[in-house]
Amino acid sequence: MLEFTFQTKIKAPARDIWNMYADFDKRRQWETDLEYIKLDGLFSTGTFGVMKLADQPEMVYTLTSVIPYSQYWDRTEIPHTGIAICFGHEFTPDDNGTLLKVSAKLEKSTGEITDQDILFLSNIFSDTPQSILAIKKLVEI
């Protein structure tokens, strides 16, 4: 497994940050390459969805763990590669705000992690700090 992580403190309650993720209309305010995102049910563990990012094919994802206002993880399998990308979002109360930690993991069903895998995940994760700082700007009090 391979993992990248970014975290920062946001001067806002976890509920306000959570809503930037769970309310898909608000997601477009900070996820600039998002064309659409849909869920086949509630924002809860086990729910499947589809998303479309600019210049990318539609992708199916699963919410693998959802604990409201605390954390959620999603998993997207990359077709025909034996690779899955998992994104985690953890919300930890902190003095006058919330520590937001976002992680991206690459899981590979066979073989060793290669330099190409590292660059692939790095590219996927590259806009994460910018997105989190956009959320911060939108919700800070």
Task: Provide tags for this entry.
7-stranded antiparallel beta sheet; 4 helices; alpha+beta; single chain; 141 residues; Alpha-D-Glucose-1,6-Bisphosphate, Chain A, domain 4; Polyketide cyclase / dehydrase and lipid transport; START-like_dom_sf
Walkthrough of the structure:
- The protein has one domain (2-139): 2-Layer Sandwich (Alpha-D-Glucose-1,6-Bisphosphate, Chain A, domain 4).
- It is globular and about 45 Å long.
- The chain has 141 residues and is of the alpha+beta class.
- It has a seven-stranded antiparallel beta sheet.
- The protein has four helices and seven strands, in the order βααββββββαα.
- The protein has helices at residues 14-22, 24-27, 115-125, 128-139; strands at residues 2-10, 34-39, 48-53, 59-67, 71-78, 83-94, 97-108.
- The model has no long low-confidence stretch (mean pLDDT 93).
What's the topology here?
Blueprint lengths: L1 E9 L3 H9 L1 H4 L6 E6 L8 E6 L5 E9 L3 E8 L4 E12 L2 E12 L6 H11 L2 H12 L2
Antiparallel strand pairs: 1-7, 2-3, 3-4, 4-5, 5-6, 6-7
CATH architecture: 2-Layer Sandwich
Order of helices and strands: EHHEEEEEEHH
Regions with little confidence, pLDDT below 50 for 5+ residues: none
Instruction: Estimate percent helicity.
Output: 25-40%
Q: Beta-sheet strand percentage?
A: 35-45%
